Amino acid sequence: VQLQASGGGLVQPGQSLTLSCAGSGFTFSSFRMYWVRQAPGKNLELVSHINTVGGITYYPDSVKGRFTMSRDNAKNILYLQMNSLKPDDTALYYCARGCSSALSGVTCTYQGQGTQVTVSS
Hints:
Elements: E1 2-6, E2 9-11, E3 17-24, E4 33-38, E5 45-50, E6 56-58, E7 67-72, E8 77-82, E9 91-102, E10 105-111, E11 115-119
Parallel strand pairs: 2-11
Antiparallel strand pairs: 1-3, 3-8, 4-5, 4-9, 5-6, 7-8, 9-10, 9-11
């Protein structure tokens, strides 16, 4: 299983970014997929997940209304459109598979290399 995220960068508050993630080594269309993020000194946080056919099932309040997750099963690609970015969104963003939330935090079976998003004026 390989998951490679890209598209991060340095933006000013209020601006937008679109992250992409290419999946390979597995049947991409058969799995629920996730975006997770980790800010310095903080635990891994679940940002969004999407079911196999593209129905969005979850956004935390911290990103609801600003982030949109989608997938292209023909190309094995995940997307995360991020609008109205805030400094609190600064983190390393990962696409992942097989994530679960517990009191101890979020864990994922497969978590690819992340892409850094920095929101700063």
